[in-house]
Each structure stands twice: as structure tokens, then as C-alpha cells.
Amino acid sequence: MQPLIDNARTFGQRPEEFAKLAEGQSPQVLFITCSDSRVVPALITGARPGELFELRTAGNIVPPYGSDRPTGEAATIEYAVEVLGVSDVVVCGHSHCGAVGALVRGDDLDAVPAVRDWLAHAADEPGANDPDDPTVMQAVQNHVLAQLLRLRSYPCVEKRLADGRLRVRGWYYEVHTGAVREHSVDTDGFEAL
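RE: above sequence
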């Protein structure tokens, strides 16, 4: 923890670099990804402060939309799309995902009931060609596609997709190589960017 504290102490000693951020934000992308500490959206994309609006959830899960019971995730998506007017939404899954791996293996999560109940929002159970694959690549990619479908059902997303003001993208990030792949509708596979 000490190195993080040391950096935080010196971080604000360059106010000229941050003054413009006080004027507001206008990110072009909502980046939905996992809470995993190995997945750092700004590092992956090279984004500077103010360029990405982020939503991080365990397993990059997009929960079902329900106006009768709003969630923080739904509020974040709606704010990014309706208020900030992002032009793209990226749902980014990653290799070695503990959440997806737990789903694929059918892990007993009774000791962590909040995690168990959250993972119930994962949509369809992500299939895997090889449940013993530590990267859970196929399962994560299936999971990303399921979350994209869920995202498309949000009224604000559906409306902006229909009028061409929004694009949604599915990405797969390999934590062990740094490679990023994007889902291609043409090939129905994840291709190198």
C-alpha cells in the first residue's frame, strides 16, 4: 500500500495538468469491464483522464434492465448514453476471469452469497470448449456476447442504436499477453484489433 500512498501524495502536485478537467467531461466511450485488478481500461486504450467513462462490475456483467428497480449499473449506462452522449460502448471481457471461470466450473459460492447472487445476473451460462482451460477464453467470449445482447435491451441503448448515434463493441483482453480482440459480426469471431 505504501507505494500507492506515496504516488497519491505527489499526484496532485501538477495542478496545471488537471485544471481543464474541472470544466467538465465529454468522453466518447463507455467502457464496461470487469473489476479485476489486472484489467486497466486506460492502460489498455491509452486513454487520458476524461476520455473514458467506466463501469466496472464483477465479471463485466450488465444486469437486466428494470425501471421498477434501478441499479447503479443501469444508471451509469443511461447517464453515459443520454447525458454524456457517448458514441461507443465497449463490453470488455478478459482471460483468466474468476467470475466466468466460477460459472463454467459450477463452483460452490455459498460462502460468498453476494458474489453467487450477482453471478446469477450473468445471462446464459457461458459455454466452454474446455472447462479446464485457465484462460476460459471461449466462455469469456460467449459471456461478452451475452452481455452485449443484454445491453442492447436497455431503452436508451436501443433508441440510440436504432438512430445510428451509438455503436456497441465486444472486446476480449488477454491479461497474459496484452492482446485485444474485437468481435466481428462478419466472421462471428474475435479478431485482432
